[in-house]
Design goal:
- The protein is globular, with a radius of gyration of 18 Å.
- The mean pLDDT is 83.
- With 210 residues, it is mostly helical.
Amino acid sequence: AHPLLLFNPDSRSANLLIPGLVGILLNFSGVLLAAIAIVRERERGTLEQLIVSPVRRIELIVGKMVPFGVIAVIQVTLITMVGSIWFNVPLRGSIPLLLLCTLLYLLTTLGAGLFLSTICSTQQEAMMSVFLFNFPATLLSGFAYPIENMPDVIQYLTYLNPQRYYLTIIRNIFLKGVGAEVLWREMLALLVIGIVVITMSSLRFRKRLG
């Protein structure tokens, strides 16, 4: 007897790789843009000018993060269109749900970028830090290697990786067409991790601005 593949019967690698690439690119671009933009402001000395302005620090942080969130949503839209039209990757689920989960994921990526900006003094340092952050995050996401094949200790570490949850969400939305009633655990995990990361990064950012 041969195993029956319900959601990818032709075993097309594109059906798994294209949705997974969305999470990888979002993580890389979100963290990189957030970290470098703030470090660049500090290098130019304009960040201190913003601090002494009437703008509150929370407004400064939000103002810096929102444009990158918009860029990320555009990225997801473009990659989804290219994957569906050019590579014939099926999109069986809800697009609004996909965008909602993307926004939850962005909390973690932008928060990580904000945190890296507090420990880097130059753009070169920020770029290296982003690479060192993204490399293990991608390895532990299940994109290239199934998580269940990893050692037990490594499998426990993947629960701290938001990429793991987002890749599960996006692949299920694309290939299975499932809804929030199935993905709520992953969505909740992204929300919790995102709130924790944003809060810790914001506190460290404000302390660094001192």
